[in-house]
Design goal:
Length: 727
């Protein structure tokens, strides 16, 4: 460790020790830089406060006068904390966050200067953001985009800048970001889920989706990471031989967090606390130098914002600690990849978890309603969910025998499986009074409040019920959770809408009582959606075969997975739920395809460069050493040299073969890239996937073989061993 690094580490450790001494509690930091309820109560008039709260809870409009008031108070609050600038903070379709800072400072008549920020600046802005991907929605010369305040996610101060979470839309109304469709999906979910809750409680008011993400990542010494062009330019290693020791001893998982990583985590957690990101859990992950950080769950829109913010903060804090954070889903071949499990549930009036079994049969019927409807929604839209997590980088992780496969299935555990099996076998049609009582007591009454399966859960499942929430595990570490959350909440909203129609129909036409009608519909749903339930090992070919028989999709790469996004049923679904129109869907589809193609194109170029400019020349230098050595041996030993230099001669031949292969394959790969000019859109992405990408591993194998032969002193790339085990 360099002296600068050591000093940085010592500094952080001293600071944290001092804090403990001063007894400064973490909780005191929480939300210090957030314009939250408490700050608003201090700074806003009662009318303004209520107006913002109403907008947050019920989506009501904030009128212009009030917006002016809020803006002035927000500015005063922000300036009292040292902020000098403000920005509309948004999430364009790059998946990252974007901001353009403006100073509060304004000059008046060229001489007088004062700090100014009014309602107009708060509510709407027009960033010249014409370079963000828009999939053809905006032609730069005509439709401008604007950002608009999202009062459901509180403003915060980051690096002396007041950040106002906003949506980003075109003047023609189409969403240009990730947040707008998510907010619309959450609205649809609220509408249809609340309608169902009213079956059980007339006073039900609002249902929110909750999200608790688990962010996995690697921390690599930045000097080492930057010494590798592949890590620097693509976020993953494109070659590298596995070290003798990998993760086989499982000695990293949940082990003691190394001191330098710990210092980073502590610093990070402090920044998160101040920003109101409720991080709670941190631990080592399976692979060496792999970690996880997870918060207490929050309302989904806020949780998505917080995850995006966290990823930014991590980049910033890591620089201070001379680390590079890798969010790529598979930075090292043969070593565990990184996911971002999305724990998802539904919360009624911020009080009741609708996916938590209750104390009474009626509460359990409500639980079963949401539980079974979610299963049905996932069953009918498994391919859409798969497409929501598709990306070039996640392709490297999914199905790699340590992460969920490309097939979406649901694990619910033995207890709930037994309940559903029993429920399924109740007679069709109107239930007899006897059956009704039996049902309530035997089946519904059997669900314990705390589910045992919580402890013996199946880690191989891409979508698992874990006691009081579903855990969508296929989401990748690099991706913005908005995509997965928009898809999931939309399909559940639609499913709940259909459910209500079916139940009401039975009540009206068959004169069934409400709970009986609910039972009847749920029972049919259990039967219909059985194929999505899978309790076994989701890794490997046995399940692949079985899933095929069950008619489940198995899209192994992004171009294949994305196709469903523009299927006519999917377009109709998003339209019906008012989440996205056809233009918005088409735009996102094209952006995703372009992103995929560009990523592969960059990887292909970088790999070609490393193979030919780093690996081959090094192999030649080493080969020359061997040749020199052989020549010398011949000089001394004469005819006997062939026996004595046998190994050297063999090695010279083997190296030659690898060099020839690398050159030939790289040229072929370049040829394949040139052919790509004939295609565009899906065809182009498919060409990269099927004609360019296959060369990656072939070239890599030759390079990795050379790594094991060439003198370690000569090898030009930092090795896996050094990247993964330098702490
Ligand atoms: P594990 O790694 O064992 O799956 P973690 O404790 O790392 O569990 O993460 C569980 C995540 O689930 C946390 O972010 C937690 O806040 C979240 N969670 C718990 N209850 C809910 C809920 N009702 N809705 C959404 N997320 C939840
Ligand atoms: Mg976890």
């Amino acid at each position: 460790m360099s002296i600068i690094r050591f000093n940085a580490l010592q500094e952080t450790l001293k600071r944290s020790a001092l804090k403990v001494e001063q007894n400064e509690k973490r909780s005191a930091l929480f939300g210090k830089n957030v314009f939250n309820k408490y700050a608003m109560q201090q700074y806003l008039t009662r009318a303004a406060y209520e107006s913002v709260m109403n907008a947050k809870e019920h989506g009501t409009r904030i009128d212009r006068k009030i917006a002016d008031q809020v803006a002035v108070s927000m500015k005063d609050w922000a300036m009292s904390k040292g902020a000098t600038h403000y920005t509309h903070w948004f999430q364009p379709l790059t998946g990252a966050t974007a901001e353009k800072h403006d100073a509060f400072f304004e000059s008046i008549n060229g001489s007088l200067a004062m700090e100014k920020f009014d309602g107009e600046q708060l509510v709407q802005q027009e960033p010249d953001a014409s370079s963000f991907p828009n999939g053809g929605i905006r032609n730069t010369f005509e439709a401008r985009g604007y950002t608009a305040w999202d009062p459901t996610s509180p403003a915060f101060i980051y690096d002396t800048t007041l950040c106002i979470p906003t949506i980003f839309v075109a003047y023609t109304g189409e969403a240009l970001d990730n947040k707008t469709p998510l907010l619309r999906a959450l609205q649809a979910l609220d509408t249809h889920a609340t309608a169902i809750c009213k079956y059980f409680d007339k006073n039900a008011n609002k249902v929110s989706a909750t999200l608790g993400w688990e962010q996995e990542f690697f921390l690599i010494d930045d000097a080492l990471a930057n010494s590798r062009p592949d890590l620097q330019l693509t976020g993953r290693t494109l070659l590298g031989h596995l070290p003798a020791k990998g993760q086989q001893l499982d000695d990293h998982y949940f082990g003691i967090i190394p001191a330098r990583a710990m210092a980073f985590m502590q610093d990070l957690e402090e920044e998160c606390m101040v920003l109101g990101i409720p991080v709670k859990t941190r631990h080592n992950e399976v692979a060496p130098n792999q970690f996880e950080i997870a918060p207490i769950f929050e309302e989904a829109n806020l949780a998505v914002d917080h995850n995006s913010l966290l990823m930014d903060v991590m980049q910033k804090v890591s620089k201070r600690h001379h680390f590079k954070v890798l969010f790529h889903e598979k930075p090292f071949s043969g070593i565990n990849g990184s996911g971002k499990h999305n724990n998802w549930s539904l919360s009624l009036d911020n009080k009741i978890n609708l996916l938590s079994p209750g104390k009474t049969p009626m509460k359990n019927l409500q639980f079963l309603t949401f539980f079974i409807n979610t299963i049905k929604a996932v069953y009918q839209n498994e391919e859409l969910l798969r497409s929501a997590v598709a990306s070039a980088s996640n392709d490297c992780r999914l199905g790699a025998s340590e992460a969920p496969p490309n097939i979406i299935s649901i694990f619910i555990g033995s207890q709930l499986s037994a309940v559903l099996d029993e429920l399924e076998n109740v007679t069709i049609g109107k239930l007899s009074p006897q059956e009704k009582t039996d049902l309530k007591l035997n089946i519904i009454g059997k669900i314990p409040e705390i589910l045992l399966d919580n402890t013996d859960r199946n880690r191989t499942s891409p979508f698992a019920f874990t006691g009081n929430k579903f855990e969508f595990r296929a989401v990748g570490a690099f991706s913005n959770c908005a995509s997965a959350m928009t898809a999931l909440n939309t399909i559940v909203a639609k499913q709940l809408k259909d459910f209500k129609v079916a139940v009401d129909h039975l009540i009206e036409t068959k004169k069934l009582k409400k709970d009986e009608a609910i039972f009847n519909v749920l029972r049919e749903y259990i039967k219909e959606s059985k194929n999505i339930r899978f309790e076994g090992d989701s890794y490997g070919t046995v399940w692949e075969k079985e899933a095929k028989k069950r008619g489940l999709s198995n899209n192994k790469n992004t171009p294949e997975a994305l196709k469903i996004k523009i299927d006519k049923n999917v377009i109709a679904l998003y339209k019906e739920m008012e989440v996205m129109n056809e233009v918005e869907i088409q735009a996102r589809y094209e952006i995703k395809l372009q992103e995929y193609t560009k990523k592969l194109q960059i990887e292909s170029r970088v790999l070609g460069d490393i193979a030919r400019n780093h690996v081959v020349p090094t192999a030649i230098i080493y080969q020359n050493t061997l040749l020199e050595n052989t020549k010398n041996l011949k000089e001394i030993f004469g005819a006997d040299f062939k026996n004595i230099a046998k190994e050297q001669i063999e090695l010279i031949m083997v190296i030659s073969n690898h060099i020839t292969q690398i050159n030939a394959l790289t040229l072929k790969m370049i040829e394949a890239r040139k052919k790509a000019y004939d295609f565009e859109g899906l065809k182009l992405a498919e060409h990269y996937c099927n004609k360019v990408k296959p060369f990656f591993n072939q070239i890599r194998n030759h390079c990795d073989a050379l790594e094991t032969m060439v003198d370690d002193n000569l090898w030009p790339l930092t090795k896996y061993r050094e990247l993964l085990f330098t702490k």
